[in-house]
């Protein structure tokens, strides 16, 4: 197992920056997802780690070994880094067996390693087939086995499930995550799929415009996003205007009249906020607002739930998704609308009167600046 470190990395294509002061620690044996929109720098970071692009600033280390710094880099073939691309890119003239063993010296150990990996990826009965006889998912399994065969220090996965249908994508991605953990391989997965990142990774690094804007566990990134943009990128959000208040409020979640201390399953409350949802417990994200300050309130639709004693609301729309639905509500006496995620068997009808309560502390951010609004 090898720890991978990227420190203050900078890279530009001519005058256009691709990576800006990127630092990331990838623990040994962990799976880290690089999540971000198209063009944010995810693939550039992966190519820099692989040695396919040089750095203009900073450096990259694998364990105690320096791989890259400005003006200097170890060639890709000498890095001990494997790569699984978006397309399987198998050698069409070689069998599955020979594709898996391509990077290994011939001999008994090669045969044993090929058999071992074929078992690991569930393809023992396909070893003598050609790539043309495989499905898309089977071909990606072969590509994974081929990348793992030399026991790389680090494995890079560049959106390897993008060409697969959603059902196969979900099952294969989980199988791959399991295989990487069984092999104790340090891995970096590039994806723009937030559910994939949150489901598979030990850590998630969110990128935007060449920068890493937050790194944390999936729970940390989802429940305590660093910015409203991160909040909306990793999941659905409801944004409301609010006024911050110091002091405690009776917390409906734990029953305490004091500030909640954070625990493994509950974020802490550092005050409360008055908004369209009433006077609710809240936590300020990364700053300390003044008492009475106008703030930006962010909650997730699944944090809102039906309650006999909640805030009065009226159903205005239902977006059905099979297992659940996003239900839009008018709040009594308020101009703002909210959306709640409600399980499908219990969906209300349009026009129905309802009561909502917030079962998670609201997230509070500063109001957007003029630059953000522009």
Overview of the molecule:
With 374 residues, the protein is of the alpha+beta class. It folds into 2 domains: 4-229, 3-Layer(aba) Sandwich (Rossmann fold); 236-373, Beta Barrel (OB fold (Dihydrolipoamide Acetyltransferase, E2P)). The protein is built from 9 helices and 20 strands. The protein has helices at residues 42-50, 96-100, 108-120, 136-148, 166-182, 194-200, 218-223, 228-234, 370-373, and strands at residues 4-13, 16-26, 31-35, 57-62, 65-69, 72-73, 81-84, 154-158, 186-191, 203-208, 211-216, 238-245, 271-275, 278-284, 294-299, 304-320, 324-331, 337-343, 353-358, 362-365. Strands 7-8-9-3-10-11 form a 6-stranded mixed sheet, sandwiched between helices. It has a 5-stranded antiparallel sheet with strand order 2-1-4-5-6, covered by helices on one side. The protein has a 5-stranded mixed barrel with strand order 12-13-14-20-15. α3 (108-120) packs across α4 (136-148). The longest helix is centred in the middle third of the chain and has 17 residues, at 166-182.
């Amino acid at each position: 197992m090898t720890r991978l470190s990227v420190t203050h990395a900078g890279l530009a294509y001519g005058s256009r920056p691709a990576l800006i002061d990127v630092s990331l620690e990838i623990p040994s044996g962990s799976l880290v997802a690089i999540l971000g929109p198209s063009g944010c720098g995810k693939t550039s970071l992966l190519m820099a780690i692989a040695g396919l692009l040089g750095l203009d600033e900073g450096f990259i280390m694998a364990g105690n070994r320096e791989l890259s710094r400005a003006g200097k880099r170890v060639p890709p073939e000498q890095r001990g880094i494997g790569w699984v691309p978006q397309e399987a890119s198998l050698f069409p003239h070689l069998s599955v067996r020979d594709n898996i063993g391509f990077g290994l010296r011939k001999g008994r150990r090669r045969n044993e390693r090929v058999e071992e990996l074929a078992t690991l990826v569930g393809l023992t009965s396909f070893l003598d087939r050609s790539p043309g006889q495989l499905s898309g998912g089977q071909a990606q399994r072969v590509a994974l086995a081929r990348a793992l065969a030399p026991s790389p220090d680090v494995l890079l996965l560049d959106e390897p499930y993008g060409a697969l249908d959603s059902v196969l994508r979900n099952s294969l991605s989980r199988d791959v995550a399991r295989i990487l953990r069984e092999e104790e391989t340090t891995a970096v997965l590039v994806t723009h799929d937030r559910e994939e990142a949150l489901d598979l990774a030990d850590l998630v690094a969110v990128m935007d415009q060449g920068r890493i804007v937050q790194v944390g566990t999936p729970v940390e990134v989802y429940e305590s996003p660093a910015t409203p943009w991160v909040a909306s990128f990793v999941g659905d959000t409801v944004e409301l205007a609010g006024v911050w208040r110091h002091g405690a409020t009776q917390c409906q979640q734990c029953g305490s009249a004091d500030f909640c201390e954070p625990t493994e399953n509950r974020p802490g409350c550092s005050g409360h906020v008055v908004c369209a949802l009433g006077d609710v417990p809240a936590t300020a994200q990364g700053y300390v607002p003044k008492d009475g300050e106008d703030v930006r309130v962010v909650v997730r639709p699944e944090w809102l739930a039906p309650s006999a004693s909640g805030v009065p609301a009226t159903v205005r729309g239902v977006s059905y998704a099979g297992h659940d639905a996003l239900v839009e509500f008018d709040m009594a006496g308020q101009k703002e609308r909210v959306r709640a995620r409600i399980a499908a068997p219990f969906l209300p009808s349009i026009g129905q009167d309802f009561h909502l309560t917030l079962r998670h502390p609201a997230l509070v951010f500063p109001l957007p600046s003029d630059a953000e609004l522009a």
